[in-house]
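seq:
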Amino acid sequence: MGTLSCCLLLALALLGCRNVAARKCDLQGLWRNELGSNMTLSALDATGTFSGSYHTAVAVTNKQILVSPLQGAQQQRGAKGQPTFGFTVQWPFADSTTAFVGQCFMDRRGKETLETMWLLREEVPSRKDTWKATR
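struct:
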C-alpha cells in the first residue's frame, strides 16, 4: 500500500508539472514592475493586438502623473509559448511617447515575467535639438 500511494503521489506531481509546462504566457491582466509602475492589458484580439493603460511611478515632470493609454501587438503564439510583443504609450502629461519591446517568460512554477526594453522620444522645439530627444 505504501508503494501504491508513493507512485500515485509521483504520478500526480508529474501531471502537475506537465500542466505548468503546457501553459503559455498570457499578457492579459495587471502587471507591476520593480519601480512601482503598473499596467493593465486587455485580451488579445484575433490579429494579436491589445490595448490597455500604463501608470508610471517614474517620470521627469512637474505635472501630475496620469494613467496613460497604450496600444500593442504580440507575435502569434508559437509552440514555445513565450511570445515577443511590443507596445507604445502616449503620455498625456508629457510631450513624449515610449515604445516598449519584450518577451514573456514562464518559469517552472508558472510565474510569468515580462522582460522589456524601451525608447522614449520627447518633443523638442527644432531638428537641431533632436540629439537630446531620445532616451
